[in-house]
TrEMBL record:
GO MF assignments: DNA-binding transcription factor activity; transcription cis-regulatory region binding
Xref: SUPFAM superfamilies: Homeodomain-like
Protein name: Mycofactocin system transcriptional regulator
Portion annotated as DNA-binding: 38-57
A Pfam family recorded for this sequence: TetR_C_14
Residue ranges annotated for the HTH tetR-type domain, each copy included: 15-75
Taxonomic source organism: Flexivirga oryzae
Alphabetized NCBIfam families for the sequence: mycofact_TetR
Length: 199
């Protein structure tokens, strides 16, 4: 929960949570564009100093990704919860579950993903985040198949899962009437071709 003080130097409430900083930042991104918004702009609007902002986020590029790193351990747990399923089903189901959000969070998630996927300045940074996500899948597939996470099958599975998920997100963003888990379900149906030969 955000802790708010009324003693901001410019008469604004002081924001002291990741969620509140992200709300402020996304409002500015919407108004001025990502490239047109600086860290100083975000800090000023949040009623905090630049140094305080950098304690929450290492760079402006990290803000749209939120606390993504914190979700990866949860993704590992989701994958392990499907250990009793065939490998292709486990990965398929876990990816969908990882991308399942409560209805009240969908508008914010849509705005976040729209920014991440359509902002040129974020693409190089996003590659690093995608690699972290793929690594979770590769490690799980390696564990299930007795191989190494850098071997061909785990790497192929992780790249295919990401590519299919991104295709699903593209379709979801293009049609506000679409349901995200349903779109991902359709996109991921082809994953079994890469994994059904494994145990």
């Amino acid at each position: 929960m955000a802790t708010v003080s009324t003693r901001a130097g410019v008469g604004r409430p002081v924001v002291t949570s990741h969620a509140e900083i992200e709300r402020v930042a996304f409002r500015l991104f919407s108004e001025s564009g990502f490239a047109g918004t600086t860290l100083d702009d975000i800090a000023l609007a949040a009623g905090i100093g630049r140094r305080t902002l950098l304690r929450y986020y290492r760079s402006k590029n990290d803000i749209p990704w939120g606390r993504f790193d914190d979700t990866l351990d949860g993704f590992r747990d989701i994958l392990r919860s499907f250990d009793d399923h065939p490998l292709h089903e486990a990965v398929h189901l876990a990816v969908i579950e990882f991308n399942r959000f409560p209805p009240e969070a969908m508008a914010e998630h849509r705005a976040r993903m729209q920014l991440i996927l359509t902002t040129p300045e974020l693409q190089a940074h996003s590659v690093l985040r995608y690699a972290d996500w793929r690594r979770v899948i590769a490690e799980y597939v390696a564990e299930r198949t007795g191989s190494g996470p850098d071997d061909l099958l785990p790497q192929t599975a992780s790249h295919v899962a990401l590519s299919l998920s991104m295709a699903g997100y593209g379709e979801w963003l293009a049609d506000p009437a679409e349901d995200l888990p349903t779109v991902l379900e359709r996109a991921l149906e082809t994953l079994h071709a890469y994994l059904t030969a494994t145990r």
